[in-house]
Amino acid sequence: MNGFDERFLTRNGLAARQLAVLLLNHEPDTRLPRVRDFAEELGCGNGTVQAALRLLEESGAIETAARGHLGTFLVRSERSILWRLSGLGTLLAAMPLPYSRRYEGLATGLRTAFEKAGTPFAITFMRGAGARTTALLEGKVDLVVLSRFAADRLIEEHPVELVADLGPATYVGAHGLLLREGASLDAPGLRVAVDPTSEDQRMLAERAFAGRSDIQWVESSYMQLRDLFAQNLADATVWNLDEVQGRTGMGGEVLPLGDEVTRDLSLRNSSAAIIGRTEGAKALSAVRDAVDLSTVTSLQTEVLRGERVPSY
Length: 312
Fold this sequence. Notes:
Elements: H1 11-23, E1 30-31, H2 35-42, H3 46-58, E2 62-66, E3 72-77, H4 79-86, E4 91-95, H5 101-116, E5 121-125, H6 129-137, E6 143-147, H7 148-157, E7 160-165, E8 175-179, E9 191-194, H8 199-208, E10 216-219, H9 225-230, E11 236-240, H10 241-248, E12 253-255, H11 260-270, E13 272-277, H12 281-290, H13 293-304
Parallel strand pairs: 4-5, 4-6, 9-10, 9-11
Antiparallel strand pairs: 1-3, 2-3, 6-13, 7-13, 8-11, 8-12
Helix pairs in contact: 1-3, 1-4, 2-3, 5-13, 8-11
């Protein structure tokens, strides 16, 4: 269908566009709901639904077949046409700056998986989970990529919901305790760097140094860490080791995190999660059904291994 068909500006056309959203969640060769069920969900008459289905068939978005008492089946659907007609537009996802191979691989996998699903998709990069969350809540982006730990907290506090959990080591490889060369963990008044924009990193640092009232907290970002250590302004931090290896290029000692609670928290921090606003539930459902998460993780692995050039 070239351009926008004016038939989709009529009452039947509006129903067809609403129906296109619902049909994004149906796989080929599956039985469709009854016309009256569609009519009830869309708040229109049976005749309007039937006309809307005809419009979608004429546009090449779907092909249906009546199979007697079994009902009407969706024989074929063109997701790219359905998505365009639905009016959902291009989904904009906010994710961390691509400063590590892991994030480059994640961006590459997401872009490819959405393309395969016939869903227009774009990525914007924002430093700090707080900034990405604000953009989502203000409607500036449709999806946000952050750690599963941060996602769980947001779901509890805001009208957002989980779209996908990509599993361990998809967000970060590991966290570790980074100690400046010449510093001692047992030294009183240990100066620990924390990133004010990263809820995950702050929580990990607080858990790692729980029980020590002598800690001096030094606010910094990963971009400042090398200078803080070199100028003897900080002694230690808990950090994403992908960032340490990719950016700091400095000496020092990397130690494992402490107790079981901290390790569990670190594991949840390692999993990439995608969240979206609850008000866009139908679009989120379409994304869940369409996007192949194994494509995302397999391409990310290829980028990490150097087998694929990042493309996002």
